[in-house]
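Table S7 (text form). Paired inputs.
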Amino acid sequence: MNAITKQCLIVTSTLLLIMSQNATAGGDRVRLQCSALGVNDTSMDARYEERRSNTKFDASFEAAPAAGFVAGEELDVKVGGVLVGSITLISLPGGDVGGDLGFDTRVDDNDPFPGNFPKIIKGTSVMVGNLGCALN
């Protein structure tokens, strides 16, 4: 086998390996996320991930002690304007409060998706309490 043939085989093998990894790892995957910062050191973030066999969504909220939120308070979570659930705030180390809401088609630590959960596309809005962002 001459040097040119060997180089062509190496390049072809490398390209096939890269293509097969992309097909399994990212070919049918959708990942969208966003975050927002509010007044008095409040923040929220949201993530949506869709794979061939699994879909996940989670939203979280955190507030510093001076923000005026308290443990036990509930914040509505809206996706695309649809109320999909709520976050019950808990006390966090350092005096902060926070919480999260998660949905998963494979129910483990998260809840199943509610029947009214809207179709997600790039730009879908997510609101946690009065903070919001658009999934990108």
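Next pair, protein 2 of 2.
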Amino acid sequence: MATGTTGAVLFQKHGATAEFGGALRLVATRPQNLGKHIAATMHTATTGRAGPMAGYTPRVRGEQPPTTWFVSHDGDLPPEERIRALLRAPRTAEGHLCIEQRRHSRRPHPPVYLNWIDIADNHPAAGRYLIDVGSDTTVIPASAEVVASELYSRAGLGTSCASA
């Protein structure tokens, strides 16, 4: 949450078991540091091994046929098929982030959603990915810095928080 020159992140630390979370923690910071603090609340994960991908969402969902039925000369499937395979890979964690702006305004901005998944370490595409679903589905291998930067830019706070 941010208002004026102050931002706040309230989160629950990981618990000893899946049934019970740990202590609650409140961090007050500048709005431009919110992405960095939110990324820090996530458990650590390696950056996804597969490269960035983008595909037309109806094709990713299987609602439309692929762009081609042929495998390319380098053996790669169409991006929609690669995204679908990644989404079916075994996961160790997943979640979504929701950015809401001007919630109390007469004209609030529509929420922006960003999903994340952690693919199991024993899978060839292991690691963390951010997934943005619109008319295209975009998959980005994500380090903590990438998560922070994406949140920062999508919240309209600028283009990067790497130096913040």
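Residues 45-154 form one domain.
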